[in-house]
Structures are given as structure tokens and as C-alpha cells.
Design a protein that fits this description.
single chain, alpha+beta, FAD/NAD(P)-binding domain, D-Amino Acid Oxidase, Chain A, domain 2, Arc Repressor Mutant, subunit A, 3 domains, 6-stranded mixed β-sheet, 5-stranded antiparallel β-sheet, binds flavin-adenine dinucleotide
Length: 491
């Protein structure tokens, strides 16, 4: 295979870069070791906040890209029809001493160009804005431009739009080497063969240091910082209206209580430096810390433990440089890093992607605008969501599959699941990320087998070959009765 540019990684960074590149007449391939977009830990498991940009130290690469990224997402999320709500953030001071921290954050935000920041110190106004907020709160920094999104749905939507505009994706394809001759990139080696390319963009998240080392560059190291979460049922979705933060610590923005775009409440994350980039376990102590932090901000959470529907963790890719690593290598021509995307990497991604386009131009590659570029993506129809009954009825009339509910918790229909499969979902998590089937109270207990059967029929493969999230995650091991008759399981 041959491409002008290869992007390593289909997280939010690789996806936004791919979409920016798809505006030009170049051949772009995205290579991803997992089975789908957003299957890497940070993009699939984060808080989903499009930060306003007040907490990044002015002068850092993060500060350059965060507030610009926030502004860009307001437009791009609309273009690709991804979930996006401008709910605003409140950073809450519980003691008078903490008000100074708010003032400092506001100063930073003003320097970083964050619009409409305001310190609210009128307690009645604060209660009106956030009725369940701790009564001890004395003031809060309000950032109205902050938004919430569903990070994996956003990444999927962005990549779908990139593919619609000509980008090629190669999943379950692991980059094992970078081909460099006489100081110039010539392509990549993978577990499925070689791809020739004159330019490689390293957007490999937690593994970006390894990709860089494959090109002989050892300029930075990435270590994982774990963050754990609980999700609460939609029944208590009115516990918070804004994303509510405590005042930050030196290593973390703190444990937040936030609404999600689907109406749940998300609490977390804590911050724990670990060694293993594949450790996706939640811990008793970590989740206890998350619970305590959330109760401090919104005390009425304390008696809602039965409302927890699931818990999970994400790993932040923390670079030892402490800042994003964005730039062209001065040693190897044709190697560009979009790496070290620690928080707020989700927010910053579209701004970093524009910077990577500039780097491509600076590298001498000729970039002609593609006249056929279409910025709009049609979302999957969701007839059971929203209030437009007549268009839901029309859709069901045209295609009765949209009238057959498969996931009862999230009201996802057969039509949506089949459409997700047609759009590229090959695993149960791929369907879940595109439709939310399995994300409700029962966590797939009811709809899981139905989704699996639909996948097997639509993809025309045995049910036993369907996986949760790709290699090594088969759901069915064989037929129980055959086992009883003395048969063997495949693996
Ligand atoms: C707990 C937590 C909370 C966060 N909250 C927020 C937030 O609210 N707002 C915000 O803006 N940011 C937040 N972030 C940060 C944000 O999630 C990350 O900055 C962002 O997701 C990084 O995306 P990425 O594409 O660089 O990395 P990834 O998502 O890791 O994508 C990299 C991809 O590269 C692939 N890959 C790696 N090696 C190879 C290889 N050899 N061959 C092929 N493919 C490879 C991986 O499988 C992966 O899919 C949070 C992060 C965490 C963990």
C-alpha cells in the first residue's frame, strides 16, 4: 500500500488530523492497532469536557491550543452532528483562601483569550445556578464557553467524515517500525505489511514515545496517569447543571461532577501515576476517593450510591516534557509528532490538527484544496430520541427496523444497530459507541445477545467470532451443548 501521509493512531488526535488532511488532494491512511476508532484508553474514557482554557499556563503549547480548540469544536461538532452542549464550568471555592486561586485562574484565562469568564461570589446567584451545590461554597469561577460531549461519539463522527472525504483506515494494524532512509521517512512497517509514505504523523497517544523511538527519536517519554469514574443513572441527572470542579491541585483539575450529554451524571477522575499502560482496572481506594470528592461538591450525592450504573478508568498520556509534543522532527525529515496529548487533549485536538497541516505545508508537500470536500456528516437516525413524533413515524413507515427497540434502557432500535454496522462497527463496543446500545442501567445485560445476533446476521459471520472490542475479547466460546457432549472449545 502507498499513501502520501500515514497517521498512526485513530484516537481523537488522529481523527481530527485525518479530517483536516481530507480537505486537501493528498492520499491519507490512518493506521490503528485496535479494532475501531476511539478504542485507545484516553479517547474512549475521559470526562468529555471541552475546556474553556483558563487552567493552562500562558506560553505553553497547551494554552495555545486549548481555547482555540474550544472555539473550533463549537463549529466542527455541529458540522459532523456530534453531541455537544455548552453547559459551562464552575470552579468552586469552599474557603475564602481559595478565592485567590479563582482569581489566578481568571487572570490566566484572560491572558489565554478565554471569553466571558466571571467570578460569581453572590451566594444566592450561585445556588440559583447550581441548586445542589455545597452550602459552604463561597464563590465560583464561571466559564460559560465550556461544553460537554461524548468523546468516542465525537471521534467516530470526525473519522466518518474524514473517510467520507477520502481518508483510508486500517484497523487491527499495528505499526512495528518506521522506515527511514538517509534521514528521511519512507514509510511504516506493520503486522500486516508495509505502507510507503513520505510523511508519518505520530498520534499514538500512550504509545507515542514508542513510535517516536521506532524512528530513532528518543526526545520524550510518556507515562500513564490513571483516572477513575462512576456513572450515575439518568434518574439523578438533575444533580448538576454545570461541570462542577473543586479548586485544582498541582497534578489534576480535581474530581468533577458533570452532567453527560445523555443525561447521566459522571463523577471523577482521581489521578494516580502508574507504570502499566494497559492497566484498565478500577480500584476500591480510587473509587472511594472519587465518591468522597463528588460528595464534597454536591453533598446530596451521598445517598445515591444505588444510582451507580458502572465504573471505569482512563489513562492520561503524560509526557515527561509536561506539555504537548507538537512539531516536525529536526533530525528525521517527514516525521511529525502530535503526541503527549495529556488533558485537555480532547479540547485541543482541532487546533493541534490545524498546526499539523501548517507543518505539512512547511515540509514542502504541495497541498491543493479539495473542491469536493463535504464538511457535513449525516448522523444515525434516532427515532426514539427527541420530540419530533411525526418524523419518527415517517422513518418507521419507511423502515420498520426503526420501530423495533433492541436496547430498552437507552431506547436504541434495530435500525440504528444495523446502520452502525453498515458504517463500520465490527465489535459490540463499536456498536455501543455509535448507538449507545448497552450503555444504560443494565449495561447490555438485556440487549447484548440481541446485538450480537444482529451483528452475526448482518456481517454474515458465526456468532462465536463476534468480539467485544477486537482480538482477544470473544464473547461466545462455543456451543454449551456441544461441550456437554464432550466437544472442545476453540480457544
Ligand atoms: C481520565 C482522563 C480524563 C480526561 N478528561 C479530559 C477532558 O475532559 N477534556 C479534555 O480535553 N481532555 C481530557 N483528557 C485528555 C484526552 O482524553 C486525551 O488528551 C486524548 O484522548 C488523547 O487522544 P490521542 O488521540 O492523542 O490518544 P489515544 O486516544 O490514545 O489514541 C492513540 C491511538 O493510537 C493507537 N496506537 C498506539 N500505538 C499504535 C501502534 N503501534 N500502531 C497503531 N496504532 C497505535 C492506540 O491504539 C490509540 O487508539 C482526559 C484523559 C483522561 C485519561
Amino acid at each position: 500500500m502507498k499513501a502520501d501521509v500515514v497517521i498512526v493512531g485513530a484516537g481523537i488526535m488522529g481523527s481530527t488530523i485525518a479530517r483536516e488532511f481530507s480537505k486537501y488532494e493528498i492520499d491519507v491512511a490512518v493506521v490503528e492497532k485496535e479494532a475501531d476508532v476511539a478504542f485507545g484508553s484516553p479517547t474512549k474514557a475521559n470526562t468529555g469536557i471541552i475546556h474553556p482554557g483558563y487552567d493552562d499556563q500562558p506560553g505553553t503549547v497547551r494554552a495555545q491550543h486549548c481555547s482555540r480548540g474550544n472555539a473550533l469544536w463549537h463549529q466542527i461538532a455541529r458540522e459532523v452532528a456530534a453531541p455537544f452542549e455548552e453547559v459551562g464550568t464552575l470552579v468552586v471555592a469552599m474557603k475564602d483562601e481559595e478565592v485567590e486561586v479563582l482569581e489566578d485562574l481568571k487572570r490566566r484565562g484572560d491572558t489565554n483569550g478565554v471569553p466571558r469568564l466571571e467570578i460569581v461570589d453572590d451566594e444566592d446567584k450561585l445556588r440559583g445556578m447550581e441548586p445542589h451545590l455545597n452550602r459552604e461554597a463561597v464563590a465560583a469561577l464561571l466559564a460559560p464557553t465550556a461544553a460537554i460531549t461524548s468523546p468516542y461519539e465525537l471521534a467516530v463522527a470526525i473519522m466518518e467524515n474524514a473517510v467520507q472525504n477520502g481518508v483510508k483506515t486500517c484497523f487491527e494494524t499495528e505499526v512495528t517500525g518506521i522506515t527511514v532512509r538517509q534521514g528521511e521517512v519512507k514509510g511504516i512497517q506493520t503486522n500486516r505489511g508495509e505502507i510507503e509514505a513520505q510523511l508519518v504523523v505520530n498520534a499514538a497517544g500512550l504509545w507515542a514515545d514508542r513510535i517516536s523511538a521506532m524512528a530513532g527519536l528518543n526526545g520524550f517519554k510518556i507515562h500513564p496517569r490513571k483516572g477513575e469514574y462512576h456513572i450515575l443513572d439518568k434518574k439523578v441527572g438533575d444533580l448538576t447543571r454545570h461541570v462542577v470542579f473543586p479548586t485544582p491541585s498541582p497534578i489534576s483539575k480535581g474530581i468533577v461532577v458533570t452532567p453527560t450529554v445523555e443525561g447521566n451524571v459522571l463523577i471523577g477522575p482521581n489521578a494516580q501515576d502508574i507504570d502499566d499502560k494497559q492497566d484498565m482496572t478500577t480500584t476500591h481506594s480510587g473509587l472511594a476517593e472519587v465518591w468522597a470528592g463528588a460528595c464534597k461538591l454536591i453533598p446530596s450525592i451521598a445517598d445515591k450510591k444505588s444510582m451507580i450504573i458502572t465504573s471505569f478508568c482512563g489513562l492520561r498520556p503524560e509526557p515527561d516534557t509536561k506539555d504537548f509534543v507538537v512539531g516536525s522532527s529536526q533530525i528525521i525529515k517527514g516525521f511529525i509528532n502530535a503526541a503527549g496529548m495529556r488533558s485537555p487533549g480532547l479540547t485541543a485536538a482541532p487546533s493541534v490538527a490545524l498546526r499539523v497541516v501548517d507543518l505539512l505545508m512547511e515540509s514542502g508537500m504541495e497541498l491543493r484544496r479539495k473542491v469536493t470536500f463535504d464538511s457535513r456528516r449525516k448522523p444515525i437516525d434516532k427515532p426514539m430520541k427527541g420530540s419530533d413524533l411525526s418524523s419518527a413515524q415517517n422513518l418507521i413507515k419507511q423502515n420498520p427496523d426503526y420501530g423495533y427497540v433492541v436496547c430498552r434502557c437507552e431506547h436504541v432500535t434495530k435500525g440504528e444497530i444495523l446502520e452502525a454496522i453498515r458504517r463500520g462497527a465490527t465489535t459490540l463496543d463499536g456498536v455501543k459507541f455509535r448507538t449507545r446500545a448497552g450503555m444504560g442501567r443494565c449495561q447490555g445485560g438485556f440487549c447484548g445477545p440481541h446485538v450480537l445476533k444482529l451483528m452475526s446476521e448482518e456481517l454474515v459471520v458465526p456468532a462465536e467470532s463476534i468480539t467485544k472490542r477486537g482480538k482477544g475479547s470473544r464473547v461466545l466460546l462455543g456451543k454449551a451443548k456441544e461441550l456437554l457432549r464432550g466437544g472442545d472449545l476453540d480457544d
